[in-house]
């Protein structure tokens, strides 16, 4: 059944687990996620970005999700719009049948001006008013993540990056977060604690802690009832990145967020964990390997199937690690 983000995350908070929210663009990704969730009995969050809507087209996305719900009637599914840039985008998604939307009003936040904060509060509150009237949940964002939000060039492809971004000035402030939640009444809040979008998060293999879990704790203590969201939470599995390179690709040396740090975040109020890059890397590695290893094949379904199998394994591992298995 299609259910709202609020319902899913309330359950997750009550039972102390976290849910991965996977980005979807096509049938293979959706099937991979549903297959994994069904195998371990986990609730599902599917999320579509603006890029996904451009790629698949709104009707295809809508019907693919309906198909997933029809095929897996025992699994609760939330269809969430990822990074809505304006109230208009969010309204369009509500009309399209999404049960949750993200109003990302944080895009100006790296300017750190009172005007950028007021803009975020104003647009997010507007979306909450409309969405709640339709039974749709809203995720807001406060603070500033890496490349996507700041528009800093040179990170997404691993070229031209000087190393890690200095996130320290852009982390979510606990007092501001409390004020933001009070004013907007969002159901979930995305926070900046040192993650960034894309494959190139950290240039060196993490030794100590890479995220500011102390900040997660501080925000959770300040506003214990709000569901926290971590964006940019791919772990960028080394074996799949290596697979891409072993079979003719060229991915730069890179490290993602260690799964144990996400689990630590979940202990302190993180309930939704956004993952896109991991499924891209795994499916791409599997397809490159398949094409080299089975050169006689020309049935594309076998190629897509290899991608799907690789994605299912990642999804299953995340459901289990985040404690979502058995919670559907
Ligand atoms: O947060 C962004 C997601 O990774 C979606 O990426 O805009 O390329 O679909 P996209
Ligand atoms: P990754 O790029 O780390 O997978 O993050 C995805 C994300 O945050 C989507 O909103
Ligand atoms: Zn994101």
Automatic annotation (TrEMBL):
- Annotated EC: 4.1.2.13
* Superkingdom of the source species: Bacteria
User: Record's PANTHER family?
Assistant: D-TAGATOSE-1,6-BISPHOSPHATE ALDOLASE, D-TAGATOSE-1,6-BISPHOSPHATE ALDOLASE SUBUNIT GATY-RELATED
Q: Which family does it belong to?
A: Belongs to the class II fructose-bisphosphate aldolase family.
Q: Which residues bind Zn(2+) 2?
A: 104, 141
> Which pathway does the UniProt entry assign to this protein?
Carbohydrate degradation; glycolysis; D-glyceraldehyde 3-phosphate and glycerone phosphate from D-glucose: step 4/4
List residues binding Zn(2+) 1.
Answer: 83, 197, 231
Q: Which reaction does it catalyse?
A: beta-D-fructose 1,6-bisphosphate = D-glyceraldehyde 3-phosphate + dihydroxyacetone phosphate
List the keywords (alphabetical).
Glycolysis, Lyase, Metal-binding, Zinc
| Gene name of this polypeptide | fbaA-2
Q: Name one GO biological process term.
A: glycolytic process
Return the protein name.
Fructose-1,6-bisphosphate aldolase
Cofactor(s) needed, names only, are:
Zn(2+)
User: Which InterPro entries does the protein's record reference?
Assistant: Aldolase_TIM, Class_II_FBP_aldolase, FBA_II, Fruct_bisP_Calv
| Function field | Catalyzes the aldol condensation of dihydroxyacetone phosphate (DHAP or glycerone-phosphate) with glyceraldehyde 3-phosphate (G3P) to form fructose 1,6-bisphosphate (FBP) in gluconeogenesis and the reverse reaction in glycolysis.
Question: What is the UniProt remark on how the cofactor binds and its stoichiometry?
Answer: Binds 2 Zn(2+) ions per subunit. One is catalytic and the other provides a structural contribution. One is catalytic and the other provides a structural contribution.
Catalytic site: 82
